[in-house]
Amino acid sequence: MSVSFDDFLVVGISSRALFNLELANQIFEKEGLDAYRDYQLAHEEEVLEPGPGFSLVKKLLDLNQTLGKKAVEVIVMSRNSAETSLRIIHSLDHYQLDIGRMVMSGGQSISRYLKAFGVDLFLSVNEEDVANAINDGFPAGLIYTHESYPFVPDHQIRIAFDADAVLFSADSEKIYKQSGLDAFVENEVLKQDEVMQQGPMAHFLFRLSKLQALSKDHECIRTAIVTARDRNAGIRVIKTLRAWKIDIDEVFFLQGANKAEVLACFGADIFFDDQDVHAKPASQVVPSARVLYKSEGNE
Fold first, then answer.
1. Which residue among 143, 176, 198 closes a domain?
2. What CATH number does the domain containing 224 carry?
3. What is the pLDDT of residues 89-117, one digit of tens each?
């Protein structure tokens, strides 16, 4: 009888998002596949350093121990071949990451397998895989590589989201881009009682909310919205979340101010934003991922 993972929060993460594989990737890009394979085989027993998604994965997996039952499933979804994947497996063992399922696609696109594994969130540094995932309707983030982040041994999982084109649809943001800030605020005040449509990360938020309710006695998860909206445009955000029956722990209406300092104070294990102008500076202080727009014809 096969095992069902339907009741779990399922996170798929690429090997480069989980571990620091930047040197190996540089060899692949400059010298080709054969040189990459030789390098990985020669360093097979060397433990990889944590990558930008490591803290999030470690804390999510630790949550299973806190709850005394499995509620989170993490899958490593790598373009590596089976031959070059042993270093990744060795590193999983070293860090005692309870990850049993892996995809090793041998250079092929990962996104085609997301449905088969029931993935609720996909994190990767490969833009093609993330774009395909978004187009297919899966919550996905293009995570920024970074030399290292300080690992804080705190059990609490802290996840921050931008609002427009992330949790909510891009409809309001399109007004801002086409007609400017005043028209955007006027539209949001006028439509403050209209519930916004779900955005690309809404499904992940709903699944995360269920997990948060399950672990509320342990205060294991804390969420935040960090948005460029001001308080007037923010009313619609609050009312939409209320209609969704979603409780967000912290909300920051920044009126266009820089998000990085707030995110650093919040201590996010991951921050999702649709704009590079916000996500890239944030990635210097906390792990951050850009939520890509659906391509034309997939909207």
1. 143
2. 3.40.50.1000
3. 999 999 999 999 999 998 899 999 999 99
Please identify every residue annotated as catalytic: 162
* 206 and 243 within one domain: yes
Question: Per the confidence metrics, is the pTM higher than 0.90?
Answer: yes
- What confidence score (pLDDT) does residue 25 get? 84
Q: Which domain holds residue 53?
A: 9-143
Judgement on whether residues 139 and 163 belong to the same structural domain of the protein: no
The pLDDT, as a whole number, for residue 80 is 85
Same domain, 18 and 133: yes
Whether 13 and 139 share a structural domain: yes
Mean pLDDT over each residue of the chain, to the nearest integer: 92
How many structural domains are present in the chain?
Answer: 2
Q: How distant, in Å, are the alpha carbons of 22, 65, 116, 129, 152 from that of 286?
A: 18, 25, 31, 22, 12
Residue 77 banded pLDDT, cuts 50, 70, 90: very high
Q: Determine the average pLDDT of the residues in 12-33.
A: 91
Q: How far apart are CA 90 and CA 232, in angstroms?
A: 51
